[in-house]
Design a protein that fits this description.
single chain, 70 residues, alpha+beta, 3-stranded mixed sheet, 1 helix, 3 strands, HECT domain-containing protein, Hect_E3_ubiquitin_ligase
Length: 70
């Protein structure tokens, strides 16, 4: 595991997508989804910042993989 950018960079470039609930969907994931093959972090939209914060705190507290942001 490393917390530095690779010498040749990332391919493809890292990206962030926001997940919207489809009109006909009953439920939607409240936790982020990471796709390491395409360097994409998918974040679900929440109705309030409090909901977002609680779900992110839960995810990072219960996820065995460490995430480095910086």
């Amino acid at each position: 595991m490393s917390n530095t950018v690779p010498p040749i960079g990332f391919s493809p470039q890292p990206s962030i997508e926001f997940l919207h609930q489809e009109p006909d969907a009953q439920t939607m994931s409240k936790l982020p989804i990471a796709n390491t093959c395409i360097n994409c972090l998918k974040l679900p939209l929440h109705t309030s910042y409090k909901d977002f914060q609680e779900n992110m705190d839960f995810n990072f507290t219960n996820n065995p993989v460490q995430v480095f942001i910086g």
